Fold each of these.
Amino acid sequence: MSQDSIAVGSIAGAASSVAARGLWSSRWAFFLAATGSAVGLGNIWKFPYITGQNGGGAFVLVYLACILAIGIPLLMAEVMIGRRGRANPEGAMAALAKQAGASRHWGKLGSVAIFTGFLILSFYAVIAGWAVAYAPAAAIGSFAGLDGESSGALFAAMLGDPWKLVGYGTLVLLLTLGIVGLGVREGLERSLRFMMPGLFVLLLVLVGYAATTGHFAEAVDFLFAADFSKLSGQGVLVALGHSFFTLSLASGAMMAYGSYLPAGTSIVKTSIMVALADTGVALLAGLAIFPLVFANGLEPGSGPGLIFVTLPIAFGQMPFGQVVGGLFFVMLAIAALTSAISLSEPTIAWLTEKFGISRLKAVLLSGVALWLLSLGTVLSFSAWSEITLFGKTFFDSLDYLTTNLLMPLGGLGTVLFTGWVLSRSTVQEALGIGHPQLFRLWWQVLRGVTPLGILLVFLHSMGLFG
């Protein structure tokens, strides 16, 4: 067989594979999907708080610098690997390694990413169920008359009810896998075209209402007044860590989504748009939340307590609290669901491509496994709360394993693979950066600054630095 015949056959085979897997219909569809993956629970309950506590505008400036140095370069690398390999994360990394003359064992790095996303989804679905449970509770007025003690007791009662947690967590998994099971165009894209604009509209409505509380200026000052005296070295590390975790990196999601990206779409422009949208949603969430907190004389809390203990008190006291509270938790549930969809897709793609099974079978297999694993998280708040390993419950152990170990190490491996295993010419061609100086800058940042930043994130998350 001639070389021309081989080339034609390879091109035809690649085209057939792409057609079978499906593609996003446009850059806008990919933007919505990637933004939906990045925007999750952490944007709404964590970023606004850490911004206000670490100098407001000063923290935002440092955070944006970290996004440029870590988040965007790694996001571009993951999307590029997915599109270049046109396969699930394991298959894409193995194919690119083979093309580069490197060991196919690099594909195991993609396997780690898939496994990481799978583990995260097993407990993320349970936590997302909290938002689903609180939406009808807010709408029917269950928060009326709550104070700090009674609101905390209400939240604790929900956590201590395994049947309720299983029910709502199962609902999240059914919605997630039902959407993913329909495929790229009919499932992921169609649902995200509805959910992401809906999330933005709900968020803007809530910001508009918050502006009428009389404490909007206080919230703006809390979030944006640049107080560099509050920005310590620890605050810089917090910005560094959040710039890594916020974009759904090192979980296989962006590689999987990148594998469906049409060839002519600019990875650079789209990655920047996703990072800016992710940050914008987080800041808008702060503008929606903190005027309500300040208007009701409450203290801005951290983590889930801000959302599930502090805010219900405000919703129970304010005018139209049932409507506003219901809309808020619907928005939160949408944000959680869009992230859950992205976390499930790498596993589904891997099962269908690795074992040649149908998408429906892949959904059923992963769904059963996820549901069984999620029971460990559910029971961590009740029957298994006293069962610990190294002082951590089942849920805490999964959270620690994924957040502190697998994600930073997986992200570091991806950067090293892209910057030191793949050839410079291959990466430049795959990214489509025609300007030599711009690519040289990105290349130097990816090979030097980004791995150093991720290493600092890893050391900090392990308590070994900062």
Amino acid sequence: MEEVGEIKESTTSSFVFRVKNGVRKFDYVCVEHDGIVLSQIWEIKQQSDGIFAEAHVIGSMNKKYMMRTPFPLGGKVYRANEEIIKRVIGIEREGIYIGLLKDTDMKVFLSPESLIQKHLCVLAKSGSGKSYAIGVIAEEFIKRGLPIVIIDPHGEYVSLRRPNLDRNEMQLMKKFGIKPRSYAKNVFEYSPVCSRNREAIPLFLDEVNLSFQDILYLLPDATSAQKGILYEAWKNAREKRIYFLKDILQGIKEVKSSAKWGLVAKVEQIISMELFSPHYTLIDEIVKKGRCSVINLRGVAPYIQETLVSILLTKIFEERKNGTIPPVLIVIEEAHRYCPERGQGKSLAGDIIKTMASEGRKFGVGLAIVSQRPARVDKNVISQCNTHIILKTTNPNDVKAIIASVEGLNASSAGEIQMLPIGVAIVAGLPLTAPIFVEIRPRETLHGGK
């Protein structure tokens, strides 16, 4: 190994060494101390008597090893090789290829099982590459035949059907070992508003023989008196072999109580959304091996989006618990809209997203939470995510929320998050023993967010 310096100061968790050969901030170095100990350079200072680097300990090749004494002064510091870095940090050797460890040609992989079972969040300010990174992950899921469903408020992800022929990115692809590619056969677009999204498959929810619990779910603010009216209308509708929402509405109208009028308005509004149909979209068509289903909500009113996302996610979760669909990763773009933090508004979809975050791992339902406003996303949801991809974020409240929720980041990381170059991410969480800086690979497909 190449010697790069000699230790001048040390503790049990860090050391300062005089630099002999060129090193840079965030380079990995190692020392011999009852085994090989890997560290990362977090600061470099130039003084009158030389250049000094401060390195923080990450871990040891000896997994049972615990630092209990400082590093000996005068100890040699070496540049860490790829094998040591991979073994100590815990970088996967195969899986979801997201990019290269910064300033190296070392490929970084994430475990697809970990993403589904432990959840993922991608956080960054607008324009810093959140959707781009999710596009990379979607490409990798498609390659492996793993189902992925994307809640897409802006219609960005249908571009996964088209190859990325951007000249600058095609040049960059050589460095990452990829080529332009189309996934047109694997990407299915669904939308409740096909007039705005003409290539989409019409998306309808099942309204045939709704259970009483389904109806209550559509009307979460119903009073006790209104619930009684609903139950009576539902029970009467059930006397038919097949009944629809209009039958329940008719039953409500026949009730003599004045409490019915608020219900009539709400049920009429639900029917007017045109989300429900006897010819509904099957969940096992949306969640299917080898398929990326994009739920394109461009042009859909916010309150309709909330209702649709809420019911669709509930149905997917129920089907997965019953074992009728395969394990799936669900991407929630603009997550602050659908699961806002307390005091930041309310969404019909909030409860099911919280349930999936806390219980989804038991049933093979993974969440990828994507947001440009981390401080506005429910903290309980973010805390359930074990893998984090953090891109450039500058809002102080958002940076504070990230530091508080991501293990391995501390106050000194705040400046790094605010200064990250576009396309470079901090990746933290299982199975990594420490956060790493990753250059996100170019997309093989066209980026719809341009």
Amino acid sequence: MARKRKRASAAGRATAFAASSGTLVMAAFALALALTRPETGSATSSDSGPALPPTAFPAAPPRELAAPIAPIAPLPAAPGGHEPGPYPAAEGASGAVAERLPARAVRPAEPAKPPKGGAKLVIVIDDVGHNLHQLEPFLRLPFPVTFSVLPNLPYTAEAARLIRAAGKELMLHQPMEALGDLDEGPGAVYRYMEGPEVAATVLANLAQVPGAVAINNHMGSAATGDGELMRAVAETASGAGVWFLDSLTNGDSVVQSVSLELGIPHLERDVFLDNKPDRASMVEAVEDGARRAARDGRAVMIGHVWSAELADTLMQLYPELVERGFSLSTISRIMMDELDADTGD
């Protein structure tokens, strides 16, 4: 038995010596190969893919560096100690707000730049009137914003007052008939209505938002495809001295053809900012608007007051957009500029 243990011990020492010798040989071979290989001057890519290109954007300045604005008084609570909930998110939105992402991680390496004459971005915030707490962060934005207020809601009048007091632009968000079983809300116009009823409805709604400079459609995927209805709406708006912005909820909208037929100026929405409610998607939507503005001279971008991340995202992007040469404008200024261009004034 002792002899067997000695043989086993000797075999183990031999195996260990062979393994150690093999390791030394492999190490020497690797060292020689490294010394003979030419240097490349750069690291190779990992399995995770190439690193993101360096961003072309400077870091956003702290919020306190933004232009000061007048403080807004605390907003009153709704009767009963609560306020109505937010309006439902746009079709296709998940309803969940993703974790905040660094904006620089989603911006293109070569952002759009306007021509030498500049380009204008118009931000419209829809669906105002259900409550006040969602409105407040947008009112604090230190640049031009156009707010579109729904009629016949608990906070329609107070929201319109706060918007005017903040020096922002005001529109009527006119409910219009939608395709399917969607609820357009109170004060809507429908395809079955005759011209006088359409006019009376729109004018009654306009009276709830004194100082409104324009109308845009809330929903309206069915209404904006109907020539007679949109002719009545356009003529009413023109007679009231307000512009019309087509939210383009229907790709087959007849608003443009009707407006041309009547000789009435109008605008169309270029981008929805919050079809997807996460921050990264909103940043990309703003960049889409910037590309369109660089190409066309201006872009109209519509967001919604219930978008939890939108106000903060716009605040972060604003200094960089200005630095790149874009200016923030309003619906009325864009319409006046286009009228001046048409008349040569």
